[in-house]
Amino acid sequence: MSIALPGDGFELDDCENSDTKKIGPGLMYRNDKIISTKPGILHKENNKVWLESSQKRYIPSLNDPVVGIVTAKLTDFYRVDIGSHQLAILPNLAFESATKRNRPNLNVGSVVYARVTVANKDLEPEISCMSILNKSDGFGELSDGFIVHCSTGLCKRTLKPDSQILEGVGSNFTFECATGLNGRIWIKANSNKETIQLSMVLKRLDYSPDDNISGIIEEILSK
């Protein structure tokens, strides 16, 4: 693990299985080197190389989970704001068991949890409310609740299998959440008061290490 700045590069030979190297967002190939296009922490594991960074503007990446807001309802698809430079397309049939006669009826302002299925800088992003196995698996419309806008770094910390954030927050709140890698976390607690308190905790954690979770929760609950 090392710090990478824009323009930094390293040889493919430095990594194992360089012939089948897979790179993540924030990295690009150039002259047999992997070049970083933004600052972050560089990780290398087997044949994978990725850059862990925190940013406000979301750049769509294939299979990323995202929290989106419907902005327009058209004949065959919806336009959804996912925080990128373009609105995403959500086809009417991109839901489990959806048909032309039987499909979800979303309205402008509806919140959806979806997966990026098309991520190309020359095309509009496309999303789906199904997993790669064509099952809902938690994707779909999110009713009520509240969206916390944060950095993409906090979203990645929340989605880790051993996330200290969810463990710490879960011991003090009963809630539902859907985390998108586009800098949005949808939350729904037992009451409006708890939802607001939970959102305050998450916003504070955006700029604090995980070790401060207990102190932040105690401070907010005492108010």
Automatic annotation (TrEMBL):
Tell me the Pfam families matching this sequence.
KH_6 (PF15985), Rrp40_N (PF18311), RRP40_S1 (PF21262)
Q: Which domain of life is it from?
A: Eukaryota
Indicate the principal place this protein occupies in or around the cell: cytoplasm
Q: Which GO terms describe its molecular function?
A: RNA binding
- SUPFAM superfamilies according to UniProt: Eukaryotic type KH-domain (KH-domain type I), Nucleic acid-binding proteins, Ribosomal L27 protein-like
All copies of the Exosome complex exonuclease Rrp40 N-terminal domain together span 22-57
| Residue intervals of the K Homology domain | 145-192
Q: Does the keyword Lyase apply?
A: no
Q: Which GO terms describe its cellular component?
A: cytoplasmic exosome (RNase complex); nuclear exosome (RNase complex); nucleolus
Keyword annotations: Cytoplasm, Exosome, Nucleus, RNA-binding, rRNA processing
- Is RNA-binding included in the keywords of this UniProt record? yes
Q: Which GO terms describe its biological process?
A: CUT catabolic process; exonucleolytic trimming to generate mature 3'-end of 5.8S rRNA from tricistronic rRNA transcript (SSU-rRNA, 5.8S rRNA, LSU-rRNA); nuclear polyadenylation-dependent rRNA catabolic process; poly(A)-dependent snoRNA 3'-end processing; TRAMP-dependent tRNA surveillance pathway; U4 snRNA 3'-end processing
Q: Which CDD domains match?
A: KH-I_Rrp40, S1_Rrp40
For this protein, the record's InterPro entries field holds: Exosome_RNA_bind1/RRP40/RRP4, KH_dom_type_1, KH_dom_type_1_sf, NA-bd_OB-fold, RRP40_KH-I, Rrp40_N_euk, Rrp40_S1
Q: Where in the cell is it found?
A: Cytoplasm; Nucleus, Nucleolus
What family classification does the UniProt entry report for this protein? Belongs to the RRP40 family.
Q: What is this protein called?
A: Ribosomal RNA-processing protein 40
| Native source organism of the sequence | Rozella allomycis (strain CSF55)
**Lineage, top ranks:** Eukaryota, Fungi, Fungi incertae sedis, Cryptomycota, Cryptomycota incertae sedis
